Amino acid sequence: MKISFNINGQPQSVEIEDPNTPLLWVVRDMLDLKGTKFGCGKAACGACTLHVEGEAVRSCSYAVKFAEGKNVVTIEGLGDRENPHPVQQAWIEHVVPQCGYCQPGFIMATAALLAKNPNPTDEDIDNNIVNVCRCATYTRMRKAIHRAADLTPSSKVLNE
Amino acid sequence: MSRDNTCLVSTILHLNNSTSAAFQLHNKHSASTIQKMNKNKKTSRRKFLVRGGLGTLGVLAIGTYVFRNPLRRKTLSIAETLIPPYNGSGTKANLWFEITKDNQVMLHSSKVEMGQGTFTGLAQMVADELDVAIEQIQVIGAASATGIVDGLSTGGSLSIASLWVPLREMAATMREMVKGEAAKKMGVAKSDLTTKDGVVSGGGKTMTYAEVAADVTEWDVPGTPDLRPVSSYKFVGKPIPRVDLAAKVFGDPIFGMDAEMPDMLHACVIRPEHIGATFKSADTSKAEGMNGVVKVIETEDWVGVVAKTFSQALAAKRAIKVTWDIPRKWTESDIREMLQVGKGDRMITQKVGDELDPEDADVVSIAFSSPIGAHAQMEPNGAVAHVEDGKATIILSTQVVGITQKQVAKALGIDTDDVNIIPTYLGGGFGRRLNTSHAVMAAKMSKEVGKPVKYFFTRKEEFQNDTFRPPTHHIMRGKLNANGFLDSVEHHYASGDVAINSVLMPGFAHTVLGTDFGAMRGANIMYEKIPNHRSVQWHTTLPFATSWWRSLGLLANTFAIESFIDEMAIKAGKSPVDFRLAMLGTEGNQARIRKVIEVAAEKSGYTDKVKGDKAMGFAASIDTGSPCAQVVEVSIVDNKIKVHKVTCAFDCGIAVNPDQVRAQCEGSIMMGISGVLHEKMTLKDGQLYPTIYGPYEMALMRDAPGEIDIHLIQGAEVPLPVGEPPLGPIGAAIGNAVRRLTGKRVGDLPMRVG
Ligand code: FES
Ligand code: FES
Questions:
Q1: The domain containing residue A44 runs over which residues?
Q2: Which residues of chain A have a CB within 8 Å of the CB of B669?
């Protein structure tokens, strides 16, 4: 069956045999966007986090049929080298990644958090950023999240 | 070209129509050069093999580096430090550097990048001797067909330490080669030429390295130049941002999991879930007719199913019914029974002075234990393999490029040189990728279907087929003298395999060496002034695979020893800092251990008094020549241990990249916190459990200390291992803080209070 959605701002249709196929595999293997990672396939690690309608979604456990007509954003659409998203900018400033495998998932989860909560407290971060990083880059991530909040224009508006 | 060091890897990995040409080119040049090189078995120290004119790439490549006599190298005057020589092939000509047309230098690294920052450190070392800007260097993992791959592994925290001299010497030699050639081309005396940012200048003229290198087929190779003083370096010693930073922040396809080949199929594999189970029979009839399924492959110990997409392969896997022979359902108590001090092979690994009499009423004895630990690296193991016409190309995340190459060649019955292993960035290593036997599985399946096959583990396979950190059991014994210092201390420890039976060392090594040196990491007593001290290993091979886990025995051994030292300080009524300092000598490594202890105590404002709801814990260790002391601030809320702050003093000699040394300290500390507070695999119904994150509890953001305060002490004139030594003290430091808060000594990991 045919499923249509927007990906990183572009309309996209895919022909899929099983509409319950996880969005992760459609994004990675059909659309060739490899930034969204497979870690567990059971919504337990967050490596596959992307945005659907601005919400952080664990795409390994999200059937592609639910994406019909929606806006999907992956790490590739969040920002690029010329125009990094504030979260990516903060990640660069704090040199967060080690192996890097978990990082797109964390960056997407953080971007979604900041969109809702532009100035998260440490407790907000603890409660909302629950992905797994085996290299354990958590202390730098926490600093980078606060820095991203400072860099996000909306947070400044709200602060004033 | 951007300063993105990963673009070539991306090109290799990302095979769609537009880039497959690059891939084929890469392959072709590998094959032809290999043949050429193999004829040239003999190379003297002076003779670099030089390749020129690789056409479209505009490449200068310099080849073999044959080592100086290791004795001639300025090595460490530090007795305990054993940096093995760099293990790459020293006789086979291969590629280290290429200069591209746009004046970039490509470094083909014999070591892989798994997060430890090695690529960045190597780039810094090269930049300073080759006189190029860091932005001009691209680092890629050497493929076995074209580069020098490490014959053993990337591991043991040795990449920077072991390449410190050879890589800089090669870079310096290449600089002199370029200068020599430039002198000819520019008509200026070599001695009048200077080099900077990849440009040769002199006599009012300039030439880029690329211009110098263009069309050169015969190079004059000078003797190895002297290295410059470290103090003169522009990049080494500076916190340069990681060379792979952008790729990792923008989601580039740089991992093994991201690799593709044209026309690639996907595979899933069914393997035994019970420990020791063997394959009996399989009913594959249902799967064979399923959508997208190309072939079901039965082997002696697993069943593979190859399909067009991963989802189809997974669905077919679920439709296959395999019957296993399960000779025995191993239980948790079976393992505990096997793994005990007093059982297995005994080996004294340290012996100074006299043995304690356990019957002596003054002897204090405390038992400790650690559980089975999983690697749980985020990128599952896997490989993309293409086997055709007796040649194999395999792209994967691995710590053992050379060993994987040999294993695949053997399994397929082809020449080693006909197997090209292309390593990618690793989504975590931690020792798990020292065993990449799945490369063989992917290769076999590819051979069966005649097309490229991608096979990676599900998370359940990953947890059940891990090469686990072995459980351990320890008995510490000690006795104070009349002045309240330790007269004797003994560490008796039982461990499963760490180094023994790993791919790096066969089982028979045990009979030769008598001891598992991996299990021994951190097991010896470091306090030389204790008149009587010893360490005794009891080694047992368990019924499931156990092997290297970041820092090997260090985490558990230091937990036992440093918890015990703390308990004895309490018994003696002494500050644990003074207690430790009094037992250390003043020379060499003893002085370096002393220094980290003093710095950690001072910077943390250490006190053994409980303050409010918080207490501090102190511990120290030395591993592979790098001493580390840590102080933690801990509270207990709702029976949960919370680490608020960690102060860490660490001496790894020269910090090639201080920011990345800090990152490794932070990562080690957090991984240690995860290990000692949360992680534990158990046996249930003959299977290893749990098989998913969550139930396998690990540290998350909420467990991260508010602050990790790191103090680097550069107490040696060479870079020493970084990635593992800071994992030593953390467990005992937390246990020692908990002891102060609760009055109880924690003996078993993961720690439980209340
Ligand atoms: S892969 Fe989706 S949460 Fe782990
Ligand atoms: S950076 Fe390696 S898992 Fe997070």
A1: 2-78
A2: 136
